[in-house]
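pasting input
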Amino acid sequence: MKGIFGAIQRWAAAATLMVVAAMAPQAALAHGEKAQEPFLRMRTAQWYDVEVTKTKVAVNEELAVRGKFRFSPDEHWPRAAAKPTTAFLNVSAAGPVFVREGSFVNGVNMANSTTFELGRDYEFEVKLKASEPGRWHIHSMMNIQGAGPLVGPGSFVEVTGNHDDFLNEIKTLTGETVNLSTYGTKNNIMWHLVWGALAVAWLGYWLAKPLFFSRFRKVEAGDAASLTTRTDRVAAGIALVSALGLTFVGYSMAEANHPVTLPLQSAHETVAPLPIPAGRPEVKLIKASYRVPGRAMNMTLDVTNKSDKPIRLGEFASATVRFLNPEVGMMDEAAKKYPKNLMADKGLTVSDNKPIQPGETRRIEVQAQDAAWEVERLSSLIYDPDSRFGGLLFFYDSDGKRQLADVGGVLVPTFVGTGT
Ligand SMILES: [Cu+2]
């Protein structure tokens, strides 16, 4: 009997260890990107060609998150989300583990917010400097007023070294070199202590007296006037003069030490979208359905080739998940580096892979199938009252040149079938 119990005990310990081991990386991986509603991830910002220039850096070393995004056209943009009239480009990371050195959209400095056009493409770059050692998941991110943060694909960046070595120095416009991590900290602490002391003295003076009940009784007895003594008036006068005096001294000191100050800039930037390339294919969605048991989306499309070269459909991308058509084989170096959990490298099947000739309109059946529909929690959109999807289609011509087309519309779920 003892032997059996021992075996069960050992087995239970091993099983517990296995469960813990299986759960641990999961807990470290996710930081909420999958929790966002699929309609926001699929029908707003379409991120593509996103890459992190380095995945291993030392503290103080720089890297960049760069790529492109297209805002879904008006017909696919969800009614529940505000349009990008005030938007700010950023990155999403696990706290202040990098500092942003600069961000650019189509080469324009994006220190401020801007307005983006729906249905148009933009190129971006965010330059970062590593500050905190660790393994961090970095996403490109667009903050839209009224819609929230829209994140791009996440990549892990390993930061080595020691945070104490982190140096965040800049040269001000007056030629002074300052460390932004520590600049003004002493002054800040000093003034907090000074004002704190005044506040504590003022509160202490009144709290030392008999408080609510005895005062209430005096007011009830019609003797409210006796509550404020001559000493109280003197104390109040000292507090008032001290507060005004401190304000004046602080102001004069700041003026003397920093004769030139500029306020934080909060202007609205303007940026022109990338030009629309000639010969963009025209795509009409006839119908789309999602087969729940098969984790597969089927689309019927009418594709018109508006270019002068034959084209083939190579990829469907939505919510940073990429479904590639292996028949077209666009598995280039950049695609190989793409996060594995977001890459369905054989996920796209097209009924007819023969090139669509210039001027030809062809009806094709497209299937995007992968566990990513469930793992990335996109399939839950079929339970939305507004069950629509959006995404990008990537066509390649005979020279390997890429053309993008928007796709989107109603997605009808199917709950039965063989799962193909
Ligand atoms: Cu992440």
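fyi The longest helix spans residues 2-29.
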